Amino acid sequence: MGGEVRQEAINVRTRAYAPYSGFKVGAAVRAASGVIYAGCNVENAAYPEGTCAEAGAIAAMVAAGDTVITDVYVVAGSDTPVPPCGGCRQKLAEFGAGDVPVTMATVAGTEQHTTLADLLPGAFDAAFLEG
Ligand code: THU
Q: CA 117, CA 77: separation in Å to the nearest integer?
């Protein structure tokens, strides 16, 4: 199970488009359907227009018709596992419960485990929009 999401994240990372930072990231999310969706970071000459790997994986998931995340895996080539940025924490929290496991990893195989709730305490969510 866990090995599959890692492999998808590792594979998609090789296709990251990161000519500006040189920092390639791969992300894979497993949906409640069991399907795994992968995404890589896609940078742009207009730097702020770049998108994170997590955002790509989420977009692929939603485009395919899934909206519930049950597992997240993020891998980068850094020495230590890389945590999702603040914006991606919010994006992930939109589709996953607080207890969803998030694995941050290096290509070399070091893993760090956390959950969506631990990544984004006090999250703003749809409940606040209701009053
Ligand atoms: N990046 C991701 O894709 N995901 C993360 O979790 C951290 C950062 C990307 C954004 C940018 O293309 C590069 O890494 C350097 O910040």
A: 25
Residue whose Cα lies nearest atom 2 of ligand 1: it is: 52
User: What tokens does 90 get?
Assistant: 């919010």
- Catalytic, 8? Answer no
Euclidean distance between CA atoms 21 and 24, whole angstroms: 8
Tokens representing 111?
């893993």
From 49, 54, 111, 130, active-site residue: 54
Average pLDDT of the segment spanning 8-24: 98
Q: Is the pLDDT of residue 45 over 70?
A: yes
> For residue 65, which of 31, 41, 105, 28 has the smallest C-alpha distance?
31
DSSP label of 48: G
Question: Which two three-digit tokens encode residue 53?
Answer: 């790997």
Residue 9 φ then ψ, to 5°: -70, -40
Mutate which of 14, 20, 21, 25 for ligand 1 pocket (most atoms within 8 A of beta carbon): 25
Global pTM?
0.96
